[in-house]
Amino acid sequence: MVSTGQPGGTSSVVDRFPTKYLAAPEVRDMPEPPSAFRKVVGPGIIAAGVGMASGEFVLYPYIASQVGLVFVWAALVGLATQYFLNMEIERYTLATGETALTGFSRYWRHWGLVFAVMAYFANIWPGWATSSATLITYLVGGSVAPIAIGILLVIGVSLTMAPVVYQALEKTEMVKVAAVLLLIVVGAVAAIGATAWSDTPQIITNAGIPHQELGFALLLGALAFAGAGGGQNLCQSNWIRDKRFGMGAYVPRIVSPVTGHPEAAPSTGFVFEPTEENLGRWRRWWSFANREQLITFVLISFLTIVFTSLLAYATVFGKEGLESNISFLKAEGEALNAAVGGWFGTFFWIIGAFSLFAAALGIVDYTSRLGADVLKTAYLKNANESKIYFALVWGLVLIGIIVILSGLSQPLVLLVISAVTGGLMMFIYSALLLLVNRRVLPKEIRPGAGRVAALVWAFLLFGLLSVLTFNQQLRELFGG
């Protein structure tokens, strides 16, 4: 029997929502889904574009250069785990129009703030901007610091001047993904030889965990953070809401304080009664969302990891002295120049520089989105969310500039924070997603046994990762 929410009938779906800290959502009908799949494409590409950074361009290629293709399988496991995690984040927002952080805050007011602060501190070091600047120096020379400052200022201005921020971010990440796919096509023909292609089956036939050569924590980190990780996964809520998925269509989008038209955004969301008509629309939305995430985020990320691993394997496998940081790309680009011709190494660096810039843009966006959503919903209910967002954007930009101007290399404390917080966040919110989606949502749209098992797996995986990473960082911090 379906719930009607009518006087004298069964109880309303709203009754399941905790209201100690936040007001109950408003009941509305589930919006009609679009007629064509192409109209929902976007959030998964943003996720792939933002996440397509260290793992795809540094970590997996570095592993391939050291031990071959034996660990590429882990990328698929990591991406599959994140797929199910992302879909449970999307499930809550599709059904309520609220972000997952708002759902968590219904049970404890400060949950959202905890995750927002962790994300902010994890990204306070402008690593992607400096990485992009480093690749630019390989191309044109110059100093990393002023180029990185210029990149930060471009990011701040770009996000501020975009009339609708989501649309600008989506276009940027789509261009990035297209550029990377072009690199894959050109590289597959020009740079990866017959020997490397013939060794590709080793991904399956020689699959292993080369922990003695590279360290267990490093490998677990690569497995768990293939594609995205940490606060970026939580921002799936914000991105699908701005794309007008499901009940998110009722929530105004973040717009520029300069070029956009300000709207009064509600602090809580909207839910639908599980009537047959609403459930029919829900099922179509859920099908669209699952396909969009699988075809864009998972497929694009996996293809990129496989290709960049093959590219590194074909050019620098077994080379001594390679570093597992951004300088690794200089050695790889030089090897590509020597193997293919001067044009391809340059092309590789151009794509890498733009890719890391787009990653930096997305990281500043999602970090600020998470903070703005939390502050607006739980603490500053009369404030304008767009203005909070842009204050946080420029806060990250200015802090990054100060860090660069100080002349400091990455402080060890910030490295420890970045290494630990991502896994710790995912460990905690895997459990919280299970809580809110099983308790708050109507039984007709709650996660089934398979999805619950996937959340339990994510909880155990990221818990183990957090323990191992924290132990490794403590040993490095204290010289153990």
Helix-strand sequence: EHHHHHHHHHHHHHHEHHHHHH
Low-confidence stretches: 1-9
Biggest β-sheet, characterized?
A: 2 strands, parallel
Find the structural class using helix and strand composition: mainly alpha
How many individual helices?
A: 20
Q: What share of residues are in beta strands? A: under 5%
Helix fraction, binned, reads: 55-70%
Radius of gyration: 22 Å
Sheet with the most strands: spatial strand order: 1-2
Morphology? globular
* Chain-averaged pLDDT: 86
End-to-end separation:
61 Å
Q: Please count the beta strands (DSSP E, at least 2 residues each).
A: 2
Description:
With 480 residues, the protein is mainly alpha-helical. It has 20 helices and 2 strands. Strands 1-2 form a two-stranded parallel sheet. α3 runs antiparallel to α15 (276-316) and α17 packs across α18. It is globular. Mean pLDDT is 86; it is low at 1-9.
Summarize the structure.
Helices cover 68% and strands 1% of the residues.
Key traits:
two-stranded parallel ribbon, 480 residues, globular
Chart the SSEs and their pairings.
Layout: E1 26-27, H1 43-51, H2 54-67, H3 73-96, H4 100-105, H5 111-122, H6 127-140, H7 144-161, H8 165-190, H9 194-198, H10 202-205, H11 211-214, H12 216-224, H13 231-234, H14 236-242, E2 270-271, H15 276-316, H16 328-340, H17 342-379, H18 385-405, H19 412-439, H20 449-477
Parallel strand pairs: 1-2
